[in-house]
Amino acid sequence: MYASFLQGPARAHWSRIGARRRAGVATPLFSVYSETSAGVGEYPDLVPLGRWARAAGLSILQLLPMNDVGYTFRPYDAESSIALEPMHLCLGAVRGGGAGAGRLAAARIRRTYGPQGRVRYDTAVKRAKLEALRSIFDRQGKRPAAFAAFRRRCAEWLGPYAQYKVLKSIYGQRAWWDWPEPFRHRSGAEYEAFLRERAVEIEYHEWLQWQCHEQFAAAHAALGRMGVLLLGDLPFLVSRDSADVWAEQRYFKLDLAAGAPPDLCFAEGQRWGMPPYDWPAIEKDAYRYLRRKLLYAETFYDLFRLDHFVGIFRVWAFQDAPGGKGAFDPPDTDIWEAHGRRILSAILSSTRMLPVAEDLGTVPDCSYALLRETGLPGTDIQRWSRHWDRPGAAFKSPEEYRPNAVCVVSTHDISPLRQWWEAEAGTIDTYSFASWCAEAGLDAETLRGELFDEKSSRYGRLRWKETLDSEEALSRLVGGHRPRALFEAFRSTSRERSDYWSAVGLKGTPSERATPEFLRAALGASLNSASVFSVQLLQDWLAPAELPGMDAWDYRINFPGVTSDANWSIVLPAPIERLTKLAETSLIRGLVERTGRI
Predict the structure, then answer these.
(1) Chain center to CA of 80
(2) In angstroms, how far is CA 62 from the centroid of its own chain?
(3) Where are the domains of the chain?
């Protein structure tokens, strides 16, 4: 089934890892920790996590972005597309001397900021670790030759990044466009004086990146010896306030702000804020900016998630001004395919890593065609993989999934399986329902009582009444108004629970609760799919074990479009070392073996 992958443009990339069925686990590093971690998951923690993965029969370990997030803690809006997050450094494993002092500092941080259900994103953990690292840096003598070699090898991006970090500190973390003119454009005598006077601080940030490189590369090598592939996540865009944009302004359209087009959830679209790329300028420089990122990333990864894959064809962009309207960039649909082909060709020629496309959202047809042609995997989300063009939108059977895909039950941007089943499946959003009623001139409160089961409606979701069994019944209650969105939602969600229950191979009446039997059936259906890879969130793999502290609703990584302390902060309720002792680990391995993914 997968032999054709070895015949296409990505044959060299497939040959490196083997075109065969695999299963894997996905997690952000901040969500896991070992018994020796200080405040947050660390690069060396990937090694015991890899041991658990192998015990469970999993050969892919997928991470969320590892880029430096500064003090905003938004992984997909990072301060650099290359530099790594120093918060994940293990203080006791620093190179060049000082490991003993690092272990003492780590013990203090561990006592103060031990696992508490959430990463302490009040900046305390990161500041404490950086203070300890700066102390070690200052006490070290002559820098090792390996550090000097690293600086020479990475000078093109490392120097500007380190300068950016120092200037951010000098100007109170203000954005680069609010700095004095000489520093906004890296020119003039004042800027040259800064480079001389702040040379030690600049070197410190370069040293931090060297330490990240050494620890992450060592973890990757250890995983390779175990037979575990590391799947990275390279954000498609980078923060407007980033070292990349500051140092390479010619590569970005600073008058635009990227986002997503309007849909049923966001009537006016989504404004993300990152500037779109000026691809003609990047192409004019032979894609040097793109190649640089990929070359560095393959030090750590065997595969990488090509975030927002549809963005290589076109990006939805707003004018970066109050009330600015949105449109696709480039606007000409006739050039989208050629545009994407050129960028993908540059990607494939720049790296040995296998790209895994995140082809979600509003997807142009040329995207699916290009993935089929190249044999690159796309992304199929189980709860959304349905025959949307057919009445009833039935769920696809496992054999109907794309062979060139990674099949997932959940992602970091949607609810985990347990949460979805118990609170969201067979429901619609309360706010959307009210909006549709207002547009149609309907009394939302009265209609709500007639359409929905209030006892089963929670967390801002409305569960349809079981007695509401047809569109005709809905029409009688709504009258002549018939809001289109409401009827579309009814078609796709009113039978969602019973249809999904059958699709994962279960009989009888769907259970209200996500029982271990149900969870394993859903995971097994994903593993049994035709997709070459099946990679699940760690919390979905562990959900049947019902670990204390894993709340069905709160155990979600991110709520898109919402600013919340709950985003990007969830932590497992137990250290990694406990995972291999769980009975669930052997049960996962059994599922993986039965579906031929060992």
Answers:
(1) 16
(2) 9
(3) 421-520
